[in-house]
Amino acid sequence: MSKPYSPLPWSYSALTSFETCPRKHYHLKVAKDVVEPQGEAAMWGDTVHKAIEARIKNKTLLPKGMEKWERVASKFDTPKGLLFTEERFALTKNMQPCKWGATDCWTRGIIDIGVDAGEKVFLGDWKTGTVKHDLDQLKLFAGLYMQTKLYVKKVKTAFIWLAHNKVTKEEFTRDDLPEIWGDFAARARRLEVAAQQNKWPPKPSGLCKAWCHVMTCEFNGRR
Q1: Angle 99-144-134 (CA atoms, 0-180°, nearest 5)?
Q2: Which of 47, 177, 180, 218 is most solvent-facing, going by the fewest CB within 10 Å?
Q3: pTM (2 decimals)?
Q4: Whose CA is closest to 127, among 83, 69, 57, 173?
Q5: Which H helix or E strand runs over 197?
Q6: Where are the alpha helices (DSSP H) in 21-85?
Q7: What is the pLDDT of residues 156-196, one digit of tens each?
Q8: Is residue 1 predicted with pLDDT exceeding 50?
Q9: Residue 103 in 3-state DSSP?
Q10: Mean pLDDT over residues 152-158, rounded?
Q11: pLDDT in tens, 35-64
Q12: pLDDT at 211
């Protein structure tokens, strides 16, 4: 017998998957009767993440085609604080740090790069795709870190858009925590209610025309 679906713990990607289209989320994550193949862009992103992590952690030379990002990676050669890469953070619903696979885990996320200087922290996320202006993922990272490290007072966050040589920055302080968790709790609750009621309505958009693999949906444009 397969394990019953649970919307918890939620991640940023799971939450946005549900919000983009509950019907598609159902088929991919709940019923699991549709498999969405990993595209070339996603595979390239995974490759870049691993290469930059190896460069920063072990001083491994960046492979051919990625040498242009040496300038970015080298900035972390002499960090002004504790350096970490690809670190996992998880919280219970009571906002207590927990293990990644804990049975009472409520939310979790992986932070690509960070420098902890005590009361002030930098958290970064490598991006290989198109520049977007949705900073909610950075907000979640700041919340996860401050909730785990109680001594932190200010978090500087950044999306590092490698293909575009751009950086999108946002700052958060401990005073922002109530707003951060109030927003995400409301959004996560909608996912929980959908799971409890087993209601997953379609949310048609431009993505239906060429990008959706749920062929049974009446809005699918690939059929």
Answers
A1: 130
A2: 218
A3: 0.93
A4: 69
A5: helix 177-197
A6: 22-25, 40-58, 70-73
A7: 999 999 999 999 999 999 999 999 999 999 999 999 999 99
A8: no
A9: coil
A10: 98
A11: 988 889 899 999 999 999 999 999 999 999
A12: 81
Can you tell me the mean pLDDT for 77-89? 97
For residue 92, give both structure tokens: 């219970």
**Distance (Å, whole) CA 25 – CA 213:** 11
Write b or e for each residue in 167-201: b if 16 or more Cβ atoms lie within 10 A of its Cβ, otherwise e.
ebebebebebeeebbeebeeebeebeebbeeeebe
**Which residues make Cβ contacts (< 8 Å) with residue 102, sequence separation at least 6?**
90, 92
For residues 10 and 46, what is the distance between their CA atoms, to the nearest angstrom?
Answer: 21
Which residue carries 């785990």 as its tokens? 148
Distance (Å, rounded) from C-alpha 155 to C-alpha 119?
A: 8
Q: Coil, strand or helix: which one is 112?
A: strand
- Residue 85 CA to residue 113 CA, distance in Å, equals 4
Element (H, E) at 141: helix 136-148
Cα distances from 139 to residues 44, 46, 102, 169, 223, in angstroms, run 25, 22, 23, 11, 38
CB-CB contact of 171 with 157 (8 Å)? yes
